[in-house]
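Protocol step 4 of 6: record predicted structures for both targets in the notebook before any analysis. Target 1:
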Amino acid sequence: MATLARLMSRKPLAGRVAVVAGATRGAGRGIARMLGEAGATVYCTGRSVSGRPATPGRPETLEETAELVAAAGGRAVVVRTDHTVEAEVERLFARVRSEEGRLDILVNDIWGGDPLTEWGSPFWKLSHRQGLKLLERAVHTHLATSRHGAPLMVERNTGLIVEVTDGDTLGYRGNLFYDLAKNAVIRLAYAMAADLEAHRVTALAITPGFLRSEAVLDHFGVTEANWRDAIAKDPWFAESETPCYVGRAIAALAADPDVKSRSGGLFSSWALAQEYGFIDVDGRRPDWGSFFLSRVDEIVARDDPSDDLDRFVVRSRLFQTDLDPMLRDESARLRAWLAEQV
């Protein structure tokens, strides 16, 4: 496997054209920045532009993302696009075709589901209206965007489509509509890969770990400069990552001449960091997967009484193991532990 040092010894994505759908903030912004760092021309799309904020309480704009892309060494193009409106999506790719004549990388990171997710309630108590709106924003948008972006790749028999999700397993994510959305885009990548195989276009899904997005930093009352101060409030934050970490993972995938072998798969920022040898922009190499598993093992092995958080963590891991036949022994062990806590 190529190392990051070799992949990034030059601008490996120079001359490539990318669309990052949902580039205003969070993972999308980090992905756009790191594709720019690798030399790509990045079309940054979303709804929030200067003077026209679209997400209540969030100040980030696409223009700010574009400035970060340029500062990283890439070329950025801002295209305000509401991906729930298919005509706007169609116009976006018509513009890419007209201006660039090609599309090499498409990243679907459209979300908008945070204010619609009702944590802690069973599915029969959830708002049906809010749930359908969440699926429209987080799944239907991905379908429409890929539908209009893929033809630019198919006609050239090359390209990479990336679906950004949350979690590298098929386990339940704690809320029915959230779970549907995050698992749906994993399945979308798998299904698209099957249809695209004959055209040598790759589709895959990827997840970041505990992401230090703008909203998460605000929640903890810290900035990227002093984020470690929040570890005292939440020890899990110690293994968090910047949005650029998953961005470097996608840049490494896009630069890998053998990326086609990964088509249809589900990957994580931390596992790809180990494979490709890259680090986060803060100089660390967080491994959320190993960190989470070690904490679960500590809880189950401990003789002290468990609390609500302990049981939540173990139950979360149980959900991850339930659908994996290779993890039946672990699933049985965790189920037995939870039964003892009643």
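Target 2:
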Amino acid sequence: MKTGKVDVLLGLQWGDEGKGKIVDVLTPRYDVIARFQGGPNAGHTLEFEGLKYVLRSIPSGIFQGGKVNIIGSGVVLAPDLFMNEAKELEKSGHPLTERLYISKKAHLIMPTHRLLDRAQEAAKGKDLVGTTGKGIGPTYTDKISRNGLRVGDILEDFTEKYAKHKARHMAMLTALGWNNFEDFEATEAEWLKGIAYMRSFKFVDSEHEINRMLKEEKSLLCEGAQGTMLDVDFGSYPFVTSSNTISAGACTGLGVAPNRLGNIYGIMKAYCTRVGSGPFPTELFDETGDKLRDIGHEYGAVTGRERRCGWIDLVQLRYSIMVNGVTELIMMKSDVLDTFAEIKACVAYELPDGSQTTELPYDISKVRPVYKTLKGWQTDMTKFTSEAQFPTEFAAYVDFLETFLETRISIISIGPDRAQTIERK
């Protein structure tokens, strides 16, 4: 039986790798683009034709006409934030209701979920995770504990269902000693407007919709949010998100069988960043780290928070390639390193007992990076149009990475614009 192909695109580090741009670059090759997990804490930035867009919940294929975009069942959706995001895109001339489908099984982030997020984070004191406060964790908690409110619930007896869930959350907030309800009524009113706005979109059983399209030999690109090291099972727990960000999450978040998966595109930066709390072995606390942040404009697309910056971590990347089954690598922000005389890459971890490992241990909070130093290329690559123009030192850096990671780097980004993308032959 012939069937369409299913490829997956995801981040291999701690998020912010540049997934949005690459989905936009790859979209012309696919019929359907689907988000399989995450919520509006993940901002995918796209730049083209002199304009900049930040997508939070809407798949990054929305800018390509004629493509179907699906918000899958593994996603958690905030109706008010979705409404604001969608209206901004509509103002720029993109007809969303014709292109975007929403899974009935996707869970809704309620206003009280955001309060629970803040209350639970406050209760942790100095051990806080560094959540964005957007209610992602509490929404996934309700999902796992079988207490969630879903998109499909909008279609029948929604007022009663919402009131029941809200009352339960209020009791939980009381138990946590939370008493800050400032602006809650206004937030709730905007949220309910978002619910009404969502009714203009097509709600689908996305698993049936996607598998029907595959029978019609259509091709699907699954878009992940956050990064592999934020996976709830395989990331740097407990400083992780609340969903499976790895390739297996595409199966559970969209209803696609594992044997349908084809290419797994893994996106990495030429260096490394992290937002929020948690271990980060190659983090730099010096002028080099500041330079990476400034040149790379390393500030959260949604939160505006400064990102922690460091050298590329090849131990961590090899681990991510393994758990995802990555078939092709895509390297972003290579141009950020254009002015550095030396580039460092972590090739092993030194453990507390003095021994070294090239495998990611259970606890990475106490490891020390072992670096290999490579010569920088000190060349402005942002105007390059082919790999034939790459300086010798940059070509050597790419070759070193491919050899260590045992995976081909097929696409290299040399700037934020769609056009600043080089596909290697």
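Step 5 preliminary note on target 2. The chain has a mean pLDDT of 92. The CA atoms of residues 232 and 242 lie 5 Å apart.
Proceed to step 6 after PI sign-off.
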